[in-house]
Amino acid sequence: MGNVSVRKAYGEALASYGAVNPDVVVIVADVSSSVYTSFFAERFPERFFNVGITEQAMIDVAVGFTLGGMIPFANTFAALFLRTLEQIRTCVAYAKTNVKIVGSYSGLSDFKDGPSHHAEADIAIMRSLPNMTVLEAADAIEAKEMVPAVAEFEGPVYLRISRAETPVLFDETHKVEIGKGVIVRDGSDVTLVGCGVMVSRCIEAAKSLAAEGINARVINMHTIKPLDSSMLEKAALETGALVAAEEHSVTGGLGSAIGESLAERYPVPIERVGIADTFTETSLNYEQLLDHYGMRVEDVVNAARRAIKRKKH
Amino acid sequence: MYHSEQLVKELNEIARELRLDALEIIHERGQGHPGGSLSASEIVAALYFHHLKIDPNRPNWPERDRFILSKGHACAMLYAALARRGYFPREELHTWGHLGGRLQGHPDRLKTPGVDMTTGLEGHGIPIGIGLCLAGRRKGLRYRVYVLVGDGECGSGVLWEGALIAGKYKLSELTVIVDYNGVQLDGPVHEILPLDPLVDKWEAFNFATLEINGHNMRQVLEALDAAKEIHDKPTVIVAHTTKGKGVSFMENQSKWHGIAPNHEEYARAVAELKGRS
């Protein structure tokens, strides 16, 4: 299982999809060679708009494109989209415009540039907006599959794309259905629900748990909003305990969403793995940074053990 | 284009009636923004009753000109114009702000026929207009985009980001009109956040600039026409106006930015606008 660049897969898929759908336009705020919208730019210069470091206006320009019947993909680093929150809330979410917002360099994947560039709060913020759909690609294949899925979905979307090269989990037959979780491993003792790079760490954790006789189900929850609550309720009923794992703050992210979803009807034990309510640091190595901030495979394993222990027998 | 005396007279009369309609619904609702609605009357009248290529029977006609009321707080004026133009029944003006109604506190593109874009929080009209212009070019549609901004709104950073982008793409389809009434919510613009030299700023952002008296109908019409003849850059029309224009006690008063007149004040305002003061 080799590692493949998620951002590059996204960029290549965007360029390929540009040939299929002439209504797609790509807007970027001076980071085209970083987020690989450069591939689209080379093939479709007439549908590519680099607006410089004007993220707020970039979102509004994208809104205008939708009013003219186009499907704009607005691109920059996830951390930088936070400065556009009012545009996204008012002109995209409230006005329900068909803008596709792609937050690259998600989570800690821009390890070398440090906490200014890390995105630990974007899921929490985006999923709190009505009308917004929030997605995160678990690997390069899923990032590729998400491009047509997002383009053909009607409505505002926030798509989280990692800068990193991450383990490939799926093959070319993998299809993304927005709003539907993917069971990547079945099990009956506990369910590990991950998004993004943490799906691969959940799979590793499940292998480790199997060695001690614990049968863990693993769900790739690529759609954080709208959450696949029926899949989660089934998991709660059948496995009785859940672990949520995300490359994001434990405040307001996937784990919080799952807790909100299950608390009223299926209040099973839930443990959250993610960044504690803290800012992070710079590192020379991505994996080391994930490990340091509590997202080791071992952290998932320990969380699973705790969740199982809390089950009411 | 020559505009006949008759046309100017008719449009001035419409502007006066729009003022009366806007004040009526602001008074009736007990909420709204009279100052910035009254300052924009001639501009809105010229656009909706002469200049814009629109069809009220086809509010979503792809080839129509677009108008974005970036200073969305002046929506009483926009609603009055849309109703009078036939986008929705005039009686519906009286439902403005009612729970469940189609006329929201600020313009909502999904609820109100004829509203091209949802606005309310300042600054967005120009960059949104840019996307519309660029989409029109992609689709081969030759519509124009008009954005009315307030002067207080010119404090918004996103507005100037948009101005930079409009200059880059030489968007001659874009006409920005600044309703330069000189008064913002908290006081005179020159005290709160000075804009002068405003025309120079737009020049520096690579806009063609026109400076007019925004209450002189002929000047408004001629400026809108002149902007269509500029083919290598976007145009801004800096329209010098009077906040609260037409109602003596509202004119140039920041107090009248966002409050409704009481019964007595409303009666005085109507009398003045009807020439019976």
Overview of the structural elements:
The complex is a heterodimer of chains A (313) and B (277). With 313 residues, chain A is an alpha/beta fold. Chain A folds into two domains: 3-167, Rossmann fold (3-Layer(aba) Sandwich), CATH 3.40.50.970; 182-308, Rossmann fold. Chain A is built from 13 helices and 14 strands. In chain A, helix 11 (254-263) links the parallel strand 13 and strand 14 (270-275). Chain A is globular. The termini of chain A are far apart. Chain B is of the alpha/beta class. Chain B has a single domain (5-273), classed as 3-Layer(aba) Sandwich (Rossmann fold), CATH 3.40.50.970. In chain B, 41% of the residues lie in helices and 12% in strands. Chain B contains ten helices and seven strands. In chain B, the strands form two sheets. Chain B has a five-stranded parallel beta sheet, with helices on both faces. In chain B, strands 4-5 form a two-stranded antiparallel sheet. In chain B, strand 6, helix 9 (217-228) and strand 7 form a beta-alpha-beta unit. The longest helix of chain B is centred in the first third of the chain and has 25 residues, at 5-29. Chain B is globular. The interface between A and B is medium-sized, with 30 and 32 residues.
Strand content of chain A: 15-25%
Number of strands of chain A: 14
Could you say which overall geometry of chain A the principal axes of the C-alpha atoms support?
A: globular
Whole-number tally of structural domains of chain B = 1
Largest pleated sheet of chain A: 7 strands, mixed
Strand order of the largest sheet of chain A: 3-2-4-5-7-6-12
Strand order of the largest sheet of chain B: 1-2-3-7-6
* Helix-strand makeup class of chain B: alpha/beta
Instruction: Supply the CATH architecture of the largest domain in chain A.
Output: 3-Layer(aba) Sandwich
What's the number of extended β-strand segments of chain B? Answer: 7
The first-level CATH class name of chain B: Alpha Beta
